[in-house]
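Reviewer 2 asked us to include a model.

Predict the structure of this chain.
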Amino acid sequence: MAIFFIDGFDKYMPATTSGNVNNNNNVYLGALMAGEWNSLSGGGLQGVFIGNPLSATGGSLTFNGPTGVTNAQKTLANLATLIGGVRFNAALSNAGDMIRFQDAGSIQGALTLNTNGTITIKGANGATVATSTQSVSSGTTHYLEWSITFASSGAYQVWLDGTQILSGTANFKQSANAYLSQMLLGVFSSTTNMVVSYDDLYLDDGTGSILGTNPVVETHTETSDSQAQFSVGASVFGAWVNYSNSTNAPGANQLFFRAFTPSANGNLASVSTIPAATSAGANFKAVVYADSSNKPGSLLATGNQVTGTTSGSVLTSTFTSPPALTAGTQYWIGFITDTSVALQLSDNSTAGQRAANTYTSGAPATAPTMTTGQSDWILWGNLTGVTSHTYEVTQNAPLGYLGDYSYVQSNTVGQEDLFNVAALVSNPSQIYTVAVKGFLRDSDAGSRTVTLQTKSGGVDSGGTAFTPSTTYQWFGSYWATDPNGNTAWTVNNLNNALDGYKIAS
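Predicted model (structure tokens):
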């Protein structure tokens, strides 16, 4: 075993630096800690979010909080040596430790970015070991790598952008144990507000070597079904995750909605939203309108009345005769209501539309002139009849804190879903490892073991079996070589490989 963990911070949620999203700890921190990272700590958690990527795809883990220690902690096996690397971009006006290596809270070592752009390696209890002569400029992106043996006289190497900048031996043993059991990634500055982003992380158990090639983690989602043996549990389209801490009330006697385009055919069984206030007498009915030149046009269906709202609880209005929706076609979904009730917002943009509409008159057959530039209320449609498993597994996960909105399921040993995956953006000269990751939970009374799969050239290979719990977690399996012959991966073979999951037992 060599590389045992990679993270491009691409799968947790969309990047927030566009300004359309407030940092919602329930979403971002919940996604980050669901299995792969074990905890976040510090007084500045509102400053932890998924930022824009530092390389090819996805996002970065960005820390921009108030003064103090704020970090993501990953529990590791007891490793005598840890090799790893991470891409970073930091403001030099405020500097401090970026990475700490610990055993049960004792600092075995650390890597520090100084205000002059140099890199310092620290040993036991944070004692300075050596500082580089090479430096980085503020706000520029670089790749930092390390190899540290955690002993009273442990060897170390530090590389920057593929060049070794520090090496030697020092004391990396503050605890009673000659190993580390925790790695902390974040900001560690007790006097200033430190701002830093991380991307393209890899960890090696010490049996490999520093890569020295500025590696990139590319994250790709499934593009189409290759084999679909699980069954569809639920399907959604629209905006169902709360990326914003804000709310807005459309108002009493209003027709309001947003435009969304499903990417799979299905029947619209209901429309949901999340009230941010409790009102025992408020009435809501779902509506769905066809699109007319990028505006709401003719009414397709009105839902059943729902009376009463509870703050933070999903409100759903069902259709007696669910309208059929066509993939790739835009629809307008929302509600009519007789009471002004604040609703949660999905983000801070203004794609919502509304118009005055007397509730007792019902939804008009043709949408009236709408007031545009309204809030992005959380609104989503619940679909039935969707057959694409790719559609289900590529929807942003809701983390289980409000329910299962889009998923596939199976309780049959041996059943397996396999998917085609998007090709690599880059054309790498070497592929160090391939990871398949899934977000899973066990909803049955019993327990099952699951394997993540990769299939290359007809050879279907399963990773280590794991047992999901009743709450969602990220799981990952790694293939350093192509299972079709156990040779080095080629770009062509990887682009043609399938990935998926299987009920192992």
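The helical segments are 25-32, 389-393, 491-495. The mean pLDDT is 91. We have added this to the supplementary material.
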